[in-house]
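Hello,

Following up on my earlier ticket. Below are the two sequence lines again, exactly as submitted.
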Amino acid sequence: MNTVNIASKFSMIEEFWSPRIAGELNDSYVKLAKLKGEFVWHHHENEDELFLVVKGKLLIKLRERDIWLEEGEFAIIPKGIEHCPVAEEEVQVLLLEPKSTLNTGNIHNERTKTDQWI
Amino acid sequence: MNTVNIASKFSMIEEFWSPRIAGELNDSYVKLAKLKGEFVWHHHENEDELFLVVKGKLLIKLRERDIWLEEGEFAIIPKGIEHCPVAEEEVQVLLLEPKSTLNTGNIHNERTKTDQWI
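Thanks for your patience. The regenerated structure is below:
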C-alpha cells in the first residue's frame, strides 16, 4: 500500500502513447500516459475508460463531436464509443480502466502496447 | 458524455465528509469530497478504495502506520483494511470506488451518507 506521486511517476515516462500502470484496485488499473500527436480511432468493446488530464490540453475526437479536456478535467468514454485522442502539444493523462483494456481497443497494430508497471 | 471540471465541482460542495458522485464507469463511481477533521475508523468488506488528493494534505491512519498524501498523490486502500482519514486543514479528495461502497464501510452511524450526484 504505497503512496504514488503522480508528477514523480510522469518524470520517469519517456515514451508517448505507452500507458504505464501506477495502481490497481478492484478489477481496474490506474495508468499514466504521455500523449503527443494523434492516436488511432478505436473503441473498447466492454470497458468504460476515464481520461483525467493532469497536464496540457487533450482533444478526444468522437464520430459526432469533439471533447476538449483541460488540466483538472476528466471525461468518461463509454464502452463501444469510437474515439481518437489527439494531443497537439504533450499531454499527461491519468487513465482508469478495467484490467482487460487494450490501449488500441478493437484495433491491433504497431501502436498496441502491453502495459507495464511504473 | 460530459467533461467534468474538478475545481468547478468542488466549488459547489459545502458539506464536509459528504462524497458527491461526479462520474460513473464500469461498476464504479468517481466521487469528490471535502474533508476536515477526523473521520471514523472503518473498513470496506469487498471494495478497494482510491484516494487522490486534489488540494491540501491528507492523513490516512492505518492500524499499523500512517499514510500522508500531498496534492497530486494517491493511495489505494485494499478491501478489509481498517483506515481513518484525518484532515487537519480542509482537503479536497477524488475517490474511486465500486458503486456498492458506503462511506463509513462497516460502520453505520450519523456520518453514514447516501451519496448524491453533483
